[in-house]
Design a protein that fits this description.
The chain is α+β, with helices and mostly antiparallel strands. Among the domains are: 135 residues, Adenine-n6-DNA-methyltransferase TaqI, Chain A, domain 2 (Alpha-Beta Complex), CATH 3.90.220; 147 residues, DNA methylase specificity domains (Adenine-n6-DNA-methyltransferase TaqI, Chain A, domain 2, Alpha-Beta Complex), CATH 3.90.220. The chain has nine helices and 23 strands. It has a five-stranded mixed beta sheet, with no helix packed on it. A four-stranded antiparallel beta sheet has the order 2-10-7-8.
Length: 408
């Protein structure tokens, strides 16, 4: 077994170099792609979305395929990636390559350790938007294991990384299938502005076109409350509903129970429509599911109860989610200073396709299966991410060592 005493402490600048290839006029580069910090996800080495080079005008760096892109601004966001193409790069990033004798793969592992990021953050300067200069980055001390250990350490860590990427791919495929299923079942194609409004032509047998108001049993606005009461009732607020229609209880408030609480009660299958919010978020909605505690809702929501013999709550809810995502509610909202509002009357006027009840049940059950699979994949991805971080820190700090036999 090797020991950490066999390792060498070196400055980062001894094993890596900054690549400064600056171009003042991006149009002269003849490159198609641009990498800004907004294109790099935290803790994700792969760049999924590139910007367009012809959209930038100021001086930029140029990187080559395989270069490491390090976000030097707000390092606490941990923005680090490998470019899979030649591209323009924001000057808020540093283009880095390993020096001779060290592989790119091992250098990127060193840069992913918690110890490295802690040093970067501590050496960054500036209060509102801290940045680190290459001069300071290059002085960070890192531990370098013997050459015969590096390949095995890389193999072990990147095996986890490969599983992470495969899982991420499965998640993307599942979400694409989910979206296609939703649009197909709801009879929707394209986006608002080129929207396929419900019409009889080509409508499947047994389907109908109904106004939303014909599908609703009742609506009820919530109530405001500025008070808090640990012995009260959970009040669902704007932060508890996501733009993709999920209801979250990671953070919730408890308010005094009003005397007429039955008026504001929530039942399984009730739809909560966010009638007041910022322009970007107004029109969010979620389906209430039974909780271990009683819940009510604020005045920023309208409770919608559907006629379940005509339409299942999940069907109407998916329509509302799609219409919010394509900007319909944002366009129809009444705007005030700092917020906007959607009248429930505008929601009731929407016409939608209503499939047969058998098809609605099939759709809902299929969606539940897809969502369960997605949740399992996302949990697996998160576990792999934590595992990779743990073994990267352990191997590259010397806390976990590889035996000499493993390197032969």
């Amino acid at each position: 077994m090797t020991s950490v005493t066999d390792w060498e402490s070196v400055e980062f600048g001894e094993i890596a170099e900054q690549i400064i290839n600056r171009i003042d006029n991006p149009e002269d580069s003849e490159l198609a792609d641009y990498i800004g910090l907004e294109h790099i996800e935290s803790n994700n080495l792969k760049i999924s979305n590139y910007g367009k080079a012809n959209d930038v005008v100021s001086s930029k760096f140029v990187c080559k395929k395989g270069d490491i892109i390090f976000g030097r601004r707000r390092a606490y966001l941990r923005k680090l990636a490998i470019s899979d193409r030649d591209a323009l790069v924001s000057t808020d990033a540093i283009v880095i390559r390993p020096k001779e004798g060290l592989s790119k793969e091992f250098l990127i592992l060193i840069m992913q350790t918690s110890r490295f990021w802690d040093e970067v953050i501590s050496r960054s300067a500036g209060s509102l938007s801290p940045r680190i200069k290459w001069r300071d980055l290059s002085k960070i001390n890192v531990l370098l294991p013997p050459a015969n250990m590096r390949e095995e350490i890389s193999r072990l860590i990147f095996s986890v990384q490969n599983n992470f990427e495969k899982t991420e791919y499965l998640i993307q495929v599942s979400e694409t299938v989910r979206k296609a299923l939703i649009l197909g079942m709801l009879g929707i194609s394209n986006k608002y502005g080129k929207f396929m409004h419900p019409r009889m032509e080509g409508m499947p047998a047994g389907w109908t076109i109904r106004k939303t108001e014909d599908l609703i049993e009742s609506t009820q606005n919530g109530f405001p409350s500025g008070k808090r009461d640990e012995n009260g009732i959970v009040q669902i607020r704007m932060n508890n509903v996501t733009t993709d229609g999920q209801l979250l209880f990671d953070n919730y408030l408890m308010v005094p129970i009003p005397g007429n609480i039955s008026r504001y009660s929530l039942e399984e299958g009730d739809i909560l429509f966010n009638n007041t919010n910022s322009v970007d978020l107004v029109g969010k909605s979620a389906i209430f599911t039974k909780q271990k505690f009683n819940c009510t809702f604020s005045n920023h929501f309208t409770r919608i109860r559907v006629k379940k013999d005509i339409v299942l709550p999940e069907i109407l809810h998916q329509h509302l989610v799609v219409w919010q995502n394509i900007g319909y509610f944002q366009d129809t909202a009444q705007r005030q200073v700092g917020q906007s509002s959607v009248s429930i009357k505008d929601v009731l006027r929407i016409k939608i396709f209503v499939p047969t009840m058998n098809e609605q049940n099939f759709f809902v059950n299929t969606m539940k299966n897809i969502d369960n699979s997605l949740n399992s994949l996302k949990k697996h991805r998160d576990l792999l991410s934590k595992l990779q971080k743990k073994i990267t820190d352990s191997f590259l700090s010397g806390e976990m060592l590889i035996s000499k036999e493993d390197t032969n």
